[in-house]
Amino acid sequence: MADNFTFELVSPEKLLLSGDAEIVTIPGTEGDMGVQVNHMPVMTSLRPGMVEAKMSDGSDVSFFVAGGFADVAPGGVTVLAEFSLPRAELTREIMDEQIRLAQEAHDSHEDDDEKKANARAYLDQLNHLTPTILPA
Amino acid sequence: MASLKDLRNRIASVKATQKITKAMQMVAAAKLRRAQSAAEAARPYSQRMDAVMANIAAAVGGSDGAPRLLAGTGSDQTHLLIVATAERGLCGGFNSSIARLARDRARDLLTAGKTVKILPVGKKGADVLRSEFGDIMMKAVDLREVKHVGYANAADIAKQVLDQFGTGEFDVATLFYAEFESVISQIPTAQQIIPPEIKETEADTDSASAFYDYEPDENEILNDLLPRNVAVQIFRALLENAASEQGARMSAMDNATRNAGEMIDKLTLTFNRQRQAQITTELIEIIAGAEAL
Questions:
Q1: What is the model's pTM?
Q2: Pair A14, A76 in one domain
Q3: ipTM field
């Protein structure tokens, strides 16, 4: 089908997903972004959130990503995630660990207001996201 | 001449050694497979990262506003050498060849009047370099407790390096590790990571980057991307190193096993000769005794 494009999700440790997708939703820092075929080339950084895709075989996939980049190029979409897991494998412990790391990063930037603000925003997003993907 | 009992003990001890080296070889082979697949799994990320870096550097590089992590500090007075080696020995020339490369570089830089700082990752490299560069060496990064190198380990090292760069403690950082080529060949490599060497990619980058939209803007993405790239490069080096270490250990232990086998053969031959000589002597004594009667 002509309406598909290559979608790849990679984390530093491995290639998590590679296939043809119809639509991919990316949590960009400046808002969620739905990408379909022939999207204009864009590069965005990610906030913690869910990357969701409808694959060309009709299956839906959903991955948690924490930070990283998405590169929407004419040839396809590549998401470079700092940390990523399929939604099904996500547990409260993992989220707590992520929040703890974010908190540490936040606390370590005592002297740098800009970095502190960024870390703060990151932490807030994580805290905000957790209850929505892991209902108590 | 060693007595028969001595020889017998000697053979037993070499056999025991051979068993150990054989076991180590097999363990290394199993670990190598895992390390290799980890290195392969990590490859797509660093490849994409390189491509993205090349793209964005083409768009931003050259302009005055380029971040220091990309353009450098404008000086190359102070060098940081990050020397990644193994935590354990018994792996042939693996540790010493990386350390030698780093040592030669450090000597060159020192004779050129530069300031050198060394950050060893892994105990073995630190041990080799300490005698000569003990005073300019930082505390070694300890990965002894780490069974499988994860991205988090690399991120920790990267953070330490970046913090020092932020406070202006060095201008250029070079990473030393062994590239895994095959079980018998690991190539000690020096790679400059700050400022990064941008790989030249196909010419289509400029035409593509012209239409690129950046969210937020280029500089902000670049500021986020560059520290990550440092971590990714270190991670890649650590994985390559892990595979190289096991490969080197495997072939070293294979050699050791073979040498032990040769030694056992030689000792067994000596043992048999001596035993026969003894029997012959005893027989001659008996015959001589019988004739004397």
A1: 0.84
A2: yes
A3: 0.77
